[in-house]
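If I may wish for something, please walk me through the protein I am sending here so I can picture the backbone:
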Amino acid sequence: MMPKKSNQLFLAGLTSLLLFSAFPLFSFWPLAFVCLIPLMSAVKNISVRKTFLLSWLSGTLFYIGLLHWIVFNPAVEGWVKPLLYLGVLLIGFYLSLYLAASFALARWLAIRTKVPFWAWLAVCLPALDFIRSQGLLGFPWGSLGYALVPWTNGIQMAALTGVYGLTFWAVLINGLLLSLATMLWQGRTRLAEVLKRPQTLIIILT
């Protein structure tokens, strides 16, 4: 069942808030494993175009929040701040294009294959993050894997995979949790059966 438009907007905004809370200022890193669930729920069963637009909105709100320090820097002269507001807004529009592209690409691939949307997203989001970090306009900050930096004991895999491996892992957990929650919510299976599912085993092992 597709969420109503108002619910979709709320879920997109909720993902923005959770993403923002996972990074500094708050650095509540456990949110990295659940922050995408609202947006993933919002784009369920909608078109690729609508998936792109909704994800773009969510990403824009997140990046504007992430870059708040640029505007609120006490060293900045007051007359410069209006230009900084505009600059942060434009940067947010630009950076969120990569998040939107990853969600839209994952939706497009899921429609054409039997692979779940969330599994494609675990591949597409790190890939688009990598592309976002390249070139003159490269901006790696904001990749979901960076939110896990405070958890030093749990991210040793980054020595082999880099931050993009952490992003893949975090997105995968988001998707697996959503998949299991959906099964329970729809009443298709009982808790005892869910605990036997391979998704549950993967989450436990991680």
